[in-house]
TrEMBL record:
Residues 14-37 are annotated as: Disordered. The lineage of its organism: Eukaryota, Viridiplantae, Streptophyta, Embryophyta, Tracheophyta. This is protein-serine/threonine phosphatase. SMART domains: PP2Cc. It catalyses: O-phospho-L-threonyl-[protein] + H2O = L-threonyl-[protein] + phosphate; O-phospho-L-seryl-[protein] + H2O = L-seryl-[protein] + phosphate. It comes from Hibiscus syriacus. It holds the Pfam family PP2C.
Protein backbone atom coordinates (compact mmCIF):
# COMPACT_ATOMS: atom_id res chain seq x y z
CA UNK A 1 0.00 0.00 0.00
CA UNK A 2 2.88 2.36 0.80
CA UNK A 3 4.33 1.83 -2.71
CA UNK A 4 0.95 2.59 -4.28
CA UNK A 5 0.59 5.82 -2.24
CA UNK A 6 4.10 6.91 -3.18
CA UNK A 7 3.36 6.35 -6.86
CA UNK A 8 0.17 8.40 -6.57
CA UNK A 9 1.96 11.28 -4.89
CA UNK A 10 4.64 11.30 -7.60
CA UNK A 11 2.07 11.31 -10.38
CA UNK A 12 0.13 14.09 -8.71
CA UNK A 13 3.24 16.25 -8.42
CA UNK A 14 4.13 15.67 -12.06
CA UNK A 15 0.59 16.56 -13.14
CA UNK A 16 0.54 19.79 -11.14
CA UNK A 17 3.85 20.90 -12.61
CA UNK A 18 3.20 19.70 -16.13
CA UNK A 19 1.90 22.32 -18.55
CA UNK A 20 2.13 20.21 -21.69
CA UNK A 21 0.09 17.42 -20.11
CA UNK A 22 -0.52 14.52 -22.47
CA UNK A 23 2.54 15.24 -24.64
CA UNK A 24 4.93 14.66 -21.74
CA UNK A 25 2.96 11.59 -20.69
CA UNK A 26 3.24 10.18 -24.18
CA UNK A 27 6.98 10.83 -24.26
CA UNK A 28 7.34 9.04 -20.92
CA UNK A 29 5.33 6.08 -22.20
CA UNK A 30 7.51 5.87 -25.32
CA UNK A 31 10.69 5.95 -23.20
CA UNK A 32 9.35 3.11 -21.06
CA UNK A 33 8.49 1.14 -24.18
CA UNK A 34 12.05 1.52 -25.47
CA UNK A 35 13.47 0.48 -22.08
CA UNK A 36 11.25 -2.60 -22.05
CA UNK A 37 12.42 -3.56 -25.57
CA UNK A 38 16.05 -3.08 -24.58
CA UNK A 39 15.64 -5.19 -21.44
CA UNK A 40 13.82 -7.94 -23.41
CA UNK A 41 10.61 -7.54 -21.39
CA UNK A 42 8.46 -7.41 -24.55
CA UNK A 43 7.66 -10.50 -26.62
CA UNK A 44 6.06 -10.02 -30.05
CA UNK A 45 6.51 -13.48 -31.57
CA UNK A 46 6.06 -17.12 -30.67
CA UNK A 47 8.02 -17.97 -27.53
CA UNK A 48 7.83 -17.48 -23.78
CA UNK A 49 8.42 -14.79 -21.17
CA UNK A 50 9.69 -15.62 -17.70
CA UNK A 51 11.23 -12.73 -15.77
CA UNK A 52 13.11 -13.41 -12.55
CA UNK A 53 11.02 -12.49 -9.53
CA UNK A 54 7.77 -12.29 -11.50
CA UNK A 55 4.64 -14.27 -10.67
CA UNK A 56 3.87 -14.57 -14.38
CA UNK A 57 4.89 -17.04 -17.05
CA UNK A 58 3.61 -16.46 -20.57
CA UNK A 59 3.66 -18.83 -23.54
CA UNK A 60 2.82 -17.52 -27.03
CA UNK A 61 2.33 -19.28 -30.36
CA UNK A 62 0.81 -18.40 -33.73
CA UNK A 63 0.30 -20.42 -36.90
CA UNK A 64 -0.71 -19.15 -40.33
CA UNK A 65 -3.90 -20.56 -41.76
CA UNK A 66 -4.77 -21.35 -45.38
CA UNK A 67 -6.07 -17.92 -46.35
CA UNK A 68 -2.79 -16.13 -47.08
CA UNK A 69 -0.52 -14.08 -44.82
CA UNK A 70 -0.92 -14.59 -41.06
CA UNK A 71 -3.07 -11.69 -39.84
CA UNK A 72 -2.85 -12.66 -36.16
CA UNK A 73 -0.27 -11.11 -33.85
CA UNK A 74 0.36 -10.88 -30.11
CA UNK A 75 2.35 -9.09 -27.43
CA UNK A 76 3.41 -9.78 -23.84
CA UNK A 77 4.98 -6.92 -21.88
CA UNK A 78 6.38 -7.78 -18.45
CA UNK A 79 6.88 -4.99 -15.89
CA UNK A 80 4.40 -2.89 -17.86
CA UNK A 81 5.26 0.79 -17.48
CA UNK A 82 8.26 -0.12 -15.27
CA UNK A 83 5.85 -1.40 -12.61
CA UNK A 84 7.21 -4.70 -11.29
CA UNK A 85 3.73 -5.99 -10.37
CA UNK A 86 2.16 -5.27 -13.79
CA UNK A 87 1.96 -7.18 -17.06
CA UNK A 88 0.20 -6.38 -20.34
CA UNK A 89 -0.67 -8.98 -22.93
CA UNK A 90 -2.81 -8.82 -26.01
CA UNK A 91 -3.85 -10.81 -29.06
CA UNK A 92 -5.02 -9.23 -32.31
CA UNK A 93 -6.83 -10.82 -35.27
CA UNK A 94 -6.70 -8.77 -38.47
CA UNK A 95 -9.06 -9.10 -41.43
CA UNK A 96 -9.39 -7.59 -44.88
CA UNK A 97 -6.66 -6.87 -47.45
CA UNK A 98 -4.69 -4.69 -45.01
CA UNK A 99 -5.64 -6.64 -41.89
CA UNK A 100 -2.12 -7.80 -40.98
CA UNK A 101 -0.87 -4.20 -41.10
CA UNK A 102 -3.81 -2.98 -39.01
CA UNK A 103 -3.31 -5.69 -36.37
CA UNK A 104 0.40 -4.93 -36.03
CA UNK A 105 -0.21 -1.18 -35.87
CA UNK A 106 -2.73 -1.63 -33.04
CA UNK A 107 -0.35 -3.98 -31.25
CA UNK A 108 2.40 -1.34 -31.46
CA UNK A 109 0.33 1.70 -30.50
CA UNK A 110 -2.19 0.40 -27.97
CA UNK A 111 0.08 -0.53 -25.02
CA UNK A 112 1.97 2.78 -24.87
CA UNK A 113 -1.26 4.77 -25.39
CA UNK A 114 -2.94 2.81 -22.59
CA UNK A 115 0.03 3.38 -20.32
CA UNK A 116 -0.05 7.11 -21.00
CA UNK A 117 -3.80 7.36 -20.39
CA UNK A 118 -3.60 5.23 -17.24
CA UNK A 119 -0.88 7.42 -15.75
CA UNK A 120 -2.80 10.58 -16.62
CA UNK A 121 -6.11 9.25 -15.23
CA UNK A 122 -4.42 7.94 -12.09
CA UNK A 123 -2.74 11.29 -11.48
CA UNK A 124 -6.03 13.15 -11.99
CA UNK A 125 -7.77 10.81 -9.55
CA UNK A 126 -5.06 11.31 -6.94
CA UNK A 127 -5.75 15.06 -6.76
CA UNK A 128 -9.54 14.76 -7.06
CA UNK A 129 -11.07 15.46 -3.60
CA UNK A 130 -14.06 13.25 -4.47
CA UNK A 131 -11.90 10.19 -5.15
CA UNK A 132 -10.75 7.99 -2.26
CA UNK A 133 -8.14 5.64 -3.71
CA UNK A 134 -7.05 4.29 -0.33
CA UNK A 135 -10.32 3.16 1.27
CA UNK A 136 -11.89 1.71 -1.88
CA UNK A 137 -8.78 0.80 -3.82
CA UNK A 138 -10.07 -2.02 -6.06
CA UNK A 139 -13.25 -0.20 -7.05
CA UNK A 140 -11.42 3.00 -7.94
CA UNK A 141 -8.62 1.15 -9.74
CA UNK A 142 -11.16 -0.58 -11.96
CA UNK A 143 -12.79 2.70 -12.96
CA UNK A 144 -9.36 4.19 -13.67
CA UNK A 145 -8.44 1.27 -15.94
CA UNK A 146 -11.86 1.27 -17.63
CA UNK A 147 -11.66 5.00 -18.36
CA UNK A 148 -8.08 4.57 -19.63
CA UNK A 149 -9.11 1.73 -21.94
CA UNK A 150 -12.09 3.61 -23.36
CA UNK A 151 -9.95 6.67 -24.02
CA UNK A 152 -7.17 4.57 -25.54
CA UNK A 153 -9.37 2.59 -27.91
CA UNK A 154 -11.08 5.74 -29.18
CA UNK A 155 -7.68 7.35 -29.79
CA UNK A 156 -6.26 4.28 -31.54
CA UNK A 157 -9.26 4.07 -33.86
CA UNK A 158 -8.94 7.77 -34.75
CA UNK A 159 -5.22 7.28 -35.38
CA UNK A 160 -5.90 4.39 -37.75
CA UNK A 161 -8.41 6.42 -39.73
CA UNK A 162 -5.80 9.15 -40.29
CA UNK A 163 -2.90 6.77 -40.96
CA UNK A 164 -1.27 7.68 -44.27
CA UNK A 165 0.35 4.31 -44.96
CA UNK A 166 -2.38 1.87 -43.88
CA UNK A 167 -5.77 1.67 -45.59
CA UNK A 168 -8.28 0.60 -42.95
CA UNK A 169 -11.44 1.43 -44.90
CA UNK A 170 -12.15 -2.22 -45.71
CA UNK A 171 -9.73 -3.74 -43.16
CA UNK A 172 -9.58 -3.99 -39.40
CA UNK A 173 -8.60 -6.02 -36.37
CA UNK A 174 -10.00 -7.37 -33.15
CA UNK A 175 -8.15 -6.72 -29.88
CA UNK A 176 -8.25 -8.77 -26.68
CA UNK A 177 -5.94 -7.52 -23.93
CA UNK A 178 -5.27 -8.14 -20.26
CA UNK A 179 -3.46 -6.06 -17.66
CA UNK A 180 -2.39 -7.94 -14.55
CA UNK A 181 -1.74 -5.67 -11.59
CA UNK A 182 -0.88 -7.67 -8.50
CA UNK A 183 -3.77 -10.01 -7.75
CA UNK A 184 -6.18 -8.27 -10.14
CA UNK A 185 -6.61 -8.64 -13.88
CA UNK A 186 -8.37 -6.15 -16.14
CA UNK A 187 -9.72 -7.57 -19.38
CA UNK A 188 -10.67 -5.43 -22.39
CA UNK A 189 -12.25 -7.05 -25.44
CA UNK A 190 -13.09 -5.76 -28.91
CA UNK A 191 -14.22 -8.51 -31.29
CA UNK A 192 -14.54 -12.27 -31.18
CA UNK A 193 -11.29 -13.48 -29.64
CA UNK A 194 -11.82 -15.02 -26.21
CA UNK A 195 -10.23 -15.19 -22.76
CA UNK A 196 -10.81 -18.30 -20.65
CA UNK A 197 -9.62 -18.71 -17.06
CA UNK A 198 -8.66 -22.10 -15.63
CA UNK A 199 -9.59 -22.37 -11.97
CA UNK A 200 -10.00 -25.15 -9.41
CA UNK A 201 -13.53 -26.07 -8.31
CA UNK A 202 -14.56 -27.03 -4.77
CA UNK A 203 -14.27 -30.66 -5.89
CA UNK A 204 -10.68 -30.14 -6.96
CA UNK A 205 -11.32 -30.23 -10.71
CA UNK A 206 -9.89 -27.73 -13.17
CA UNK A 207 -12.82 -25.86 -14.73
CA UNK A 208 -13.05 -23.07 -17.33
CA UNK A 209 -14.48 -19.62 -16.66
CA UNK A 210 -15.09 -17.58 -19.81
CA UNK A 211 -14.03 -14.01 -19.07
CA UNK A 212 -15.18 -12.38 -22.31
CA UNK A 213 -18.12 -12.28 -24.70
CA UNK A 214 -17.59 -13.25 -28.34
CA UNK A 215 -18.91 -10.12 -30.00
CA UNK A 216 -20.74 -11.70 -32.94
CA UNK A 217 -23.31 -9.73 -34.97
CA UNK A 218 -26.21 -12.00 -33.96
CA UNK A 219 -25.93 -11.25 -30.23
CA UNK A 220 -29.21 -9.47 -29.39
CA UNK A 221 -27.64 -6.24 -28.08
CA UNK A 222 -25.14 -6.14 -30.96
CA UNK A 223 -27.74 -6.87 -33.66
CA UNK A 224 -30.07 -4.22 -32.23
CA UNK A 225 -27.37 -1.56 -32.42
CA UNK A 226 -26.40 -2.50 -35.98
CA UNK A 227 -29.98 -2.53 -37.21
CA UNK A 228 -30.72 0.81 -35.53
CA UNK A 229 -27.75 2.23 -37.45
CA UNK A 230 -29.22 0.90 -40.74
CA UNK A 231 -26.70 -1.94 -41.03
CA UNK A 232 -27.82 -5.48 -41.78
CA UNK A 233 -27.10 -8.84 -40.15
CA UNK A 234 -27.60 -12.12 -42.00
CA UNK A 235 -25.91 -15.36 -43.10
CA UNK A 236 -24.98 -16.26 -46.64
CA UNK A 237 -26.60 -19.36 -48.10
CA UNK A 238 -23.32 -21.25 -48.18
CA UNK A 239 -22.45 -20.22 -44.59
CA UNK A 240 -25.42 -21.22 -42.43
CA UNK A 241 -24.95 -20.07 -38.85
CA UNK A 242 -22.23 -17.52 -39.68
CA UNK A 243 -23.84 -14.12 -39.11
CA UNK A 244 -22.14 -11.15 -40.73
CA UNK A 245 -22.52 -7.36 -40.80
CA UNK A 246 -23.44 -5.79 -44.15
CA UNK A 247 -23.94 -2.31 -45.54
CA UNK A 248 -27.56 -1.23 -46.13
CA UNK A 249 -27.55 -1.58 -49.91
CA UNK A 250 -24.77 -3.99 -50.82
CA UNK A 251 -23.33 -7.34 -49.77
CA UNK A 252 -20.18 -5.85 -48.29
CA UNK A 253 -18.07 -6.04 -46.15
CA UNK A 254 -19.55 -9.12 -44.43
CA UNK A 255 -17.77 -8.86 -41.09
CA UNK A 256 -18.14 -11.86 -38.77
CA UNK A 257 -17.71 -9.69 -35.66
CA UNK A 258 -19.64 -6.67 -34.36
CA UNK A 259 -16.71 -4.77 -32.83
CA UNK A 260 -13.33 -4.00 -34.36
CA UNK A 261 -10.71 -1.35 -34.95
CA UNK A 262 -10.75 0.04 -38.48
CA UNK A 263 -13.41 -1.05 -41.03
CA UNK A 264 -14.48 2.56 -41.57
CA UNK A 265 -16.72 1.55 -44.47
CA UNK A 266 -19.22 0.29 -41.90
CA UNK A 267 -18.46 2.34 -38.76
CA UNK A 268 -21.56 4.48 -39.42
CA UNK A 269 -23.73 1.34 -39.63
CA UNK A 270 -23.27 -0.23 -36.21
CA UNK A 271 -19.70 -1.50 -36.01
CA UNK A 272 -17.94 -0.02 -32.95
CA UNK A 273 -14.46 -0.13 -31.41
CA UNK A 274 -15.67 0.25 -27.81
CA UNK A 275 -14.20 -2.42 -25.52
CA UNK A 276 -16.03 -4.35 -22.84
CA UNK A 277 -13.83 -3.92 -19.75
CA UNK A 278 -14.07 -6.24 -16.74
CA UNK A 279 -11.93 -7.14 -13.75
CA UNK A 280 -11.30 -10.30 -11.75
CA UNK A 281 -9.50 -10.97 -8.50
CA UNK A 282 -6.95 -13.76 -8.92
CA UNK A 283 -6.91 -16.29 -6.08
CA UNK A 284 -4.79 -19.30 -5.26
CA UNK A 285 -7.30 -21.46 -7.10
CA UNK A 286 -6.74 -19.70 -10.43
CA UNK A 287 -4.02 -21.39 -12.50
CA UNK A 288 -3.83 -19.63 -15.86
CA UNK A 289 -5.76 -17.74 -18.50
CA UNK A 290 -5.86 -18.49 -22.22
CA UNK A 291 -6.24 -15.68 -24.76
CA UNK A 292 -6.89 -17.00 -28.26
CA UNK A 293 -8.24 -15.89 -31.61
CA UNK A 294 -11.41 -17.42 -33.03
CA UNK A 295 -9.29 -19.86 -35.01
CA UNK A 296 -8.96 -21.78 -31.73
CA UNK A 297 -12.51 -21.38 -30.40
CA UNK A 298 -14.15 -22.34 -33.70
CA UNK A 299 -12.98 -25.92 -33.14
CA UNK A 300 -11.91 -26.24 -29.48
CA UNK A 301 -14.20 -25.91 -26.43
CA UNK A 302 -13.24 -23.98 -23.30
CA UNK A 303 -12.90 -27.23 -21.35
CA UNK A 304 -10.75 -28.84 -24.02
CA UNK A 305 -8.49 -25.78 -24.13
CA UNK A 306 -7.70 -25.74 -20.43
CA UNK A 307 -7.18 -29.51 -20.40
CA UNK A 308 -4.69 -29.26 -23.26
CA UNK A 309 -2.77 -26.45 -21.54
CA UNK A 310 -2.80 -28.02 -18.07
CA UNK A 311 -1.61 -31.40 -19.42
CA UNK A 312 1.43 -29.87 -21.15
CA UNK A 313 4.43 -30.54 -18.85
CA UNK A 314 6.55 -27.71 -20.30
CA UNK A 315 4.73 -24.41 -19.80
CA UNK A 316 6.83 -22.81 -22.52
CA UNK A 317 5.18 -25.15 -25.04
CA UNK A 318 1.60 -24.77 -23.76
CA UNK A 319 0.45 -22.26 -26.40
CA UNK A 320 2.04 -24.29 -29.20
CA UNK A 321 0.32 -27.46 -27.96
CA UNK A 322 -3.05 -25.69 -27.93
CA UNK A 323 -2.56 -24.26 -31.43
CA UNK A 324 -1.44 -27.61 -32.83
CA UNK A 325 -4.48 -29.27 -31.26
CA UNK A 326 -6.70 -26.68 -32.93
CA UNK A 327 -5.02 -27.37 -36.29
CA UNK A 328 -5.85 -31.08 -35.96
CA UNK A 329 -9.41 -30.21 -34.96
CA UNK A 330 -9.81 -28.01 -38.06
CA UNK A 331 -8.75 -30.88 -40.31
CA UNK A 332 -11.19 -33.23 -38.61
CA UNK A 333 -14.22 -30.98 -38.03
CA UNK A 334 -14.00 -28.51 -40.93
CA UNK A 335 -13.04 -30.50 -43.97
CA UNK A 336 -13.15 -28.44 -47.14
CA UNK A 337 -13.00 -25.12 -45.25
CA UNK A 338 -9.80 -23.07 -45.37
CA UNK A 339 -8.22 -23.08 -41.93
CA UNK A 340 -8.11 -19.73 -40.17
CA UNK A 341 -5.00 -18.23 -38.58
CA UNK A 342 -4.66 -19.72 -35.09
CA UNK A 343 -2.96 -17.94 -32.18
CA UNK A 344 -2.88 -18.25 -28.40
CA UNK A 345 -1.31 -16.80 -25.27
CA UNK A 346 -1.20 -18.87 -22.09
CA UNK A 347 -0.58 -16.67 -19.06
CA UNK A 348 0.26 -18.65 -15.92
CA UNK A 349 -0.26 -16.98 -12.55
CA UNK A 350 2.13 -19.11 -10.52
CA UNK A 351 5.65 -19.70 -11.84
CA UNK A 352 6.54 -22.55 -9.46
Amino acid sequence: MRQFSSMLNGLARSLRGNNSGNDDGRETAEVKTKDAKRNELILRSSGSVNVDGSNNFASVFSKRGRKGVNQDCAIVWEEFGCQTDMLFCGIFDGHGPWGHFVAKEVRESMPSSLLCNWQETLAQASIDPDTDLESNKNHERFHIWKHSYLKTCAAVDRMLERHKKINSFYSGTTALTIVRQGDLIYVANIGDSRAVLATTSDEGNLVPVQLTVDFKPNLPQEAERIIQCKGRVFCLHDEPGVHRVWLPDEESPGLAMSRAFGDYCIKDYGLISVPEVTQRHITGRDEFVVLATDGVWDVVTNQEAIQIVSSTPDKAKAAKKLVESAVRAWKKKRKGIAMDDISAICLFFHTC
